[in-house]
Design a protein that fits this description.
heterotrimer; A mainly alpha (316); B alpha/beta (429); C mainly alpha (276); A: 316 residues; mainly alpha; MetI-like fold; two-stranded antiparallel sheet; globular; C: 276 residues; 13 helices; transport (chain B); sn-glycerol-3-phosphate-binding periplasmic protein UgpB (chain B); Bact_solute-bd_prot1 (chain B); SBP (chain B)
């Protein structure tokens, strides 16, 4: 179910190598190379090599325009800057705040829907629900960003709605507001991920053995106990998946931020992905950009791996 | 090619001959100029269309981007193989350091640009090492030479009893307060994507101090700083305006084009902007829009404002540099081009000092802004934009810090400190 | 708010779901209403315009060269998805059936890339592509994408082949040409559902890819639809009705395909999340 647990389970057990079998084993190895080779080569060329270069660049001071031979070796200073510069730290912090916004609303709303219907959505209504809730998943994130920029505009739907219900004093330019810009961007991500999380959780809850609920009821469990002791444990796996997906999306949310706010106001909504792009191509600090890229990669792993481990342990 | 240039140089005496000979810079074979322009400003595209009319073998492949993207993309685009022949360059210094721009000294000779007022070209000169600016070789040309100031809505001005344009900062302050009191938005200014508050800030700097130290900073002269007592007063004054609510509450969510449509829609008494909008505003608002320069420094009596070329350069790796340079010369010297330039662009078209600016209707907005340009010239008060000091100072310095000041999380001292720090950091790279 | 009500009230459930659907649809509707306002004006919120300007769509289509964009996106998808699916299917099979536990680390090398944000490699990719001379070509999007898709795709296909019992193929008994034949005649047909889902996911990701085109391809007509939308916003973003019309056109193809193949898309996206 999760990627890491299978990793070491490996391939079918090969028979212990007997002299007669070695030829076959060698041949099989050759075939394995033939089958895996193309995928590995292109993966190596466009992922592993660039990753290696990223590490190399991160140790340099290079403007990316002159020849790289003219770059100066800079040691770990780029990393020190990433981890001490106030602005860069704020940008990393922004990513985590966004992660919370991308994660919590979809999971909470998804749980609410799932526990409210507690069955597969069937029939026409079910199909309509699925179709509509999945729409944000199939459109480009850029389009989502443009649509929501317009929603948040001074003349947009959000302010229109607030005025309609008499909250005129709450209207504002949402994406330019120091307090609300980041949450506003977060809600765009939540909107995109809401359907996916809801459907995952609805599918998951339908799989929970109904007798567990019966048993709970017989034991006199109140509904909130039921939720806590049956629904939540039963959905742990799905919740873990939701959180993994939303965190990965949040920490690499270049598209939405690029079109919706370009990182402003100030650097309130700047995320590492956008800053890497800016540093490398506009400010010509390829070394610093690369160091930030490596840190970003490690951060994603640091968030996702514990969740995966937790899921894996529970299963064993 | 040398022959062509010789002929072009030789024929300079009479402009008709010069045009005919120089036309050969684009040859007679089909040429496609790869161009990268700024979104929302029709002038370059209209000039390109007219150029194609006159020289049908030349067509333009134009890509446009908004200002912030333009600044972000230019270094990358210029370093690639298919570098633009013609590119709108808000800031040139880093690009020269990296050898991305064509040195135009050869064309300066060939086309006789020494007949242009040197004051127009000085901002486009830069030392080979990338700093300071203002001396050395020519690396870009202006499509025109703009003047900035304050546009005002005459209908709203009437409502607050402002019959004459302010001539001192105190009078301007009074007008702002009166507008605020009357429930009129005193200043509509954009501050999203890029910081439009840099305009009033720099104008205030010009009231509290002289333009020279500011230009020194913009030109990256040794030891220059923006963090001076005069500029601090200017920043404090600006902050006073922010705190008094003179700017829109959602200024950080107002981008340039929203500001324009709000001002033409009748919102806002004042707008700090440049004469590139004169034609546009005149069309949209007719007689109800006027223009004045920021009041002068009370001690010296000098007017000072941002006045800079609409900078265009030629990529060092461009495929058709000769034709692109000829286009730039044509823009400044061809009568039709100059007429389009003023009618659409609204600014001084530059060109040879003895060429007249195409005449404008008396009292029209364009005539007013062109006249203001003369005042600035006479007072020697032209400043480049503080946003153009380095390639990234706008994006990484002024914009975030001014947005913070509007958001109430930055004070005037911090603003100047942080920008200066960013500036030094960028120069040390 | 108490839980019994929630659970026993299908009305509440329905209400909640309908609310979520409305919230999901609202941005689309607000874009549509803005797209129908006269081009160049500053529309106001959600309101059906008195005189809907359907011509904005034609204008957006024309100024953005939509036919060229569509063609470009299709070419990029055709260059990326079949190759990625083929390589991944082969590698998934190889890793599931042909390797010994000793070479399991090899699989780990692929898996490590699963969480890699594209932003983390975009800088070196730019210089690499520049070195190869592919900047500003569709190849600059296609080749890196195939590589970047490998972790997920290989993981996905391997998981499928792991679920196929071994005795079915006796893979270890075959060699060379016969193994190749068996792969194509037996394994690939059996894997069709997994391959279909993978194809759908990769299609969506390719079509919607934004970062690579923005950095590696300047010419909008050689970008993906999503990347071209970035350029479109740069050039026409000052005209909100036109921007909204263009955005709606650009997001239409995937939405239409999704509506037709709704079941397959939903299944693929759900499984994609579970496995990813």
């Amino acid at each position: 179910m999760t990627h890491l647990e299978n990793a070491t389970a490996g391939a079918p057990k090969a028979p212990a190598p007997r002299p007669a079998a070695t030829r076959r084993a060698r041949r099989r190895r050759r075939d394995a190379v033939m089958f895996i080779g193309p995928a590995f080569l292109i993966y190596a060329a466009f992922v592993i090599v660039p990753l290696g270069m990223s590490v190399y660049y991160s140790l340099l001071r290079w403007d990316g325009i002159g020849p790289i031979s003219g770059a100066t070796f800079y040691g770990l200073k780029n990393y020190i800057e990433v981890l001490t510069d106030d602005d860069l730290l704020q940008i990393i912090g922004n990513a985590f705040q966004l992660a919370a916004w991308f994660t919590i609303p979809p999971v909470v709303l998804g749980l609410a829907v799932a526990s409210a219907i507690r069955s597969q959505m069937a029939g026409r209504f079910g199909t309509a629900t699925r179709t509509i809730l999945f729409l944000p998943q199939v459109i480009p994130l850029v389009a989502a960003g443009i649509a929501w920029s317009w929603m948040y505009d001074r003349n947009g739907v959000v302010n229109q709605f607030l005025s309609l219900i008499g909250l005129e004093s709450w209207t504002r330019g949402w994406l330019g507001d120091f307090t609300y810009a980041l949450p506003a961007v977060g809600i765009i991500g939540a909107w995109v991920l809401l359907g996916l999380c809801t459907m995952l959780l609805v599918t998951g809850i339908a799989r929970i053995d109904g007798s567990l609920y019966e048993a709970a009821k017989l034991d006199g469990a109140r509904p909130r106990h039921e939720f806590r002791f049956v629904t939540l444990p039963g959905l742990k796996n799905e919740i873990g998946i939701c959180v993994t997906v939303t965190i990965i999306q949040a920490l690499s949310s270049f598209d939405i931020v690029y079109v919706a706010t370009a990182g402003g106001p100030g650097i309130e909504t700047t995320v590492p992905g956008l800053e890497i792009y800016r540093l490398a191509f506009a400010h010509r600090q390829v070394g610093l950009a690369s160091a930030l890229a490596i840190v970003l990669m490690i951060l994603v792993l640091a968030c996702v791996l514990p969740i995966q481990w937790a899921l894996r342990e529970r299963k064993q | 090619m040398t022959t062509t240039k010789l002929i072009a140089g030789f024929a300079l005496g009479t402009s008709v001959l010069a045009t005919a000979a120089a036309a050969q810079e684009c040859g007679s074979d089909p040429v496609t100029l790869n161009a990268y322009f700024e979104t929302g400003f029709p002038l370059p595209t209209e000039l390109a269309t007219e150029f194609t009319n006159q020289f049908p073998n030349v067509t333009f492949d134009i890509r446009e981007d908004q200002f912030a993207n333009l600044m972000e993309n230019t270094p990358r685009l210029l370093s690639q193989e298919n570098a633009p022949d013609l590119v709108r360059l808000p800031s040139i210094s880093d690009l020269v350091t990296n050898g991305l721009l064509m040195n135009l000294d050869g064309y300066y000779e060939d086309f006789g640009w020494d007949s242009f007022p040197e004051g127009n070209l000085v901002q486009l000169r830069i030392d080979e090492s990338g700093r300071p600016r203002g001396v050395g070789s020519l690396y870009a040309m202006g499509l025109n030479y703009s003047t900035t100031g304050i546009f005002y809505n005459k209908d709203l001005a009437e409502q607050i009893g402002m019959t004459e344009t302010p001539t001192t900062l105190a009078e301007l302050d009074d007008a702002l307060a009166a507008a605020e009191e009357a429930g009129i938005l005193p200043i509509i200014q954009w501050n999203k994507d890029t910081a439009g508050l840099a305009f009033p800030l720099q104008n205030l700097m010009g009231v509290y101090g002289d333009p020279e130290p500011i230009n020194a900073w913009i030109f990256q002269q040794e030891g220059a700083t923006i963090d001076t007592p005069e500029n601090l007063e200017a920043a404090q004054h600006l902050n006073g305006w922010i705190e008094a609510g003179y700017f829109p509450e959602d200024a950080n969510a107002v981008d340039y084009f929203t500001m324009m449509s709000r001002f033409t829609g009748g919102e806002g008494l004042f707008m700090f902007n440049g004469d590139w909008e004169s034609a546009n505003l005149q069309n949209a608002m007719g007689d109800s829009v006027g223009f004045f320069l920021m009041p002068p420094n009370p001690e010296s009596g000098r007017h000072a404002t941002m006045s800079s070329p609409l900078t265009f350069g030629i990529g060092a790796n461009a495929e058709n540099p000769d034709c692109a340079a000829f286009f730039l010369d044509w823009v400044a010297t061809n009568e039709t081009a100059r007429e389009i330039n003023v009618a659409v662009g609204g600014s001084n078209p530059g060109g040879p000092a003895d060429m007249e600016i195409p005449p404008q209707e008396e009292g029209s907005l364009i005539a007013q802004t062109l006249a203001a340009g003369q005042v600035i010239g006479a007072d020697n008060g032209a400043m480049d934009f503080i946003a153009n000091a380095t390639g990234a100072i706008f994006a990484a310095g002024w914009t975030p810090e001014l947005q913070k000041m509007v958001g109430g999380v930055q004070d005037p001292e911090g603003l100047l400190d942080d920008v200066q720090e960013e500036y030094e950091d960028q120069l040390s790279r | 708010m108490t839980f019994p009500r929630i659970r026993t009230s299908p009305l509440f459930a329905r209400g909640l779901i309908i609310l979520l659907m409305v919230v999901t649809l609202l941005p689309f509707l607000s874009m549509l209403s803005a797209a129908l306002a006269p081009s160049g004006t500053y529309p106001s919120g959600l309101e059906w315009p008195a005189d809907p300007q359907w011509g904005n769509f034609a204008k957006a289509w024309q100024v953005a060269n939509m036919d060229e964009l569509l063609l470009s996106s299709i070419l990029i998808v055709l260059g990326t998805v079949p190759a990625a699916v083929l390589f991944a299917t082969m590698a998934g099979f190889g890793l599931a059936k042909l390797t010994t536990p000793r070479s399991a680390w090899f699989y780990l090398v692929f898996v490590i890339g699963l969480t890699l944000p594209f932003e983390a490699v975009i800088t070196p990719l730019y210089f690499e592509i520049r070195e190869i001379g592919l900047l500003n070509t569709r190849g600059a999007i296609i080749l890196p994408l195939i590589g970047l898709y490998m972790p997920f795709s290989v993981f996905w296909m391997r998981a499928h082949f792991m679920s196929i019992p071994n005795d079915l193929s006796e893979a270890s008994q075959l060699d060379g040409a016969r193994r190749w034949q068996e792969f194509w005649m037996v394994q690939v047909p059996l894997a069709r559902p997994a391959i279909m889902s993978l194809g759908i996911l990769l299609f969506l990701w390719t079509w919607n890819q934004f970062l690579l085109p923005v950095v590696l391809v300047q010419e909008p007509n050689r970008r993906t639809m999503a990347g071209a939308l970035g350029a479109f916003q740069g050039q026409w973003g000052t005209d909100i009705p036109l921007l909204c019309a263009g955005s709606l056109i650009i997001l239409a193809p995937t939405v239409i395909l999704f509506l037709i193949f709704q079941r397959q898309f939903v299944a693929a996206l759900l499984q994609g999340a579970v496995k990813g």
